[in-house]
Design a protein that fits this description.
By secondary structure, this protein is of the alpha+beta class. 36% of the residues lie in helices and 17% in strands. It has a two-stranded antiparallel sheet.
């Protein structure tokens, strides 16, 4: 099966492949290179029901402790955009 790249750099994933893989509109992908291959991996989001609402009185002490504990924690928090 062949696809063509548009002038905007877009390609269309053929319907047969989308249906086989369950790819729906709005699905996000991680894209990476392996040699000369382009790898697309669907990013599935965790179910919303696993999250709870936590106020600053819960999160701030946890973040402060993580910052104080180790460089790895600091790097992780920085990567998450928390300073």
């Amino acid at each position: 099966m062949h696809v063509k790249v548009s002038k905007n750099g877009r390609i269309v994933i053929p319907k047969e492949i989308r249906e086989t893989l369950g790819i729906k509109e709005g699905l996000n992908f991680k894209i990476r290179l392996e040699g000369k291959k382009i790898i697309l991996e669907p990013l599935s989001e965790p179910p919303k029901e696993i999250f709870i609402k936590a106020g600053d009185n819960i999160t701030e002490p946890m973040i402060r402790e993580a910052k104080e504990r180790s460089d790895k924690s600091k790097k992780l928090l920085e990567a998450l955009g928390i300073e």
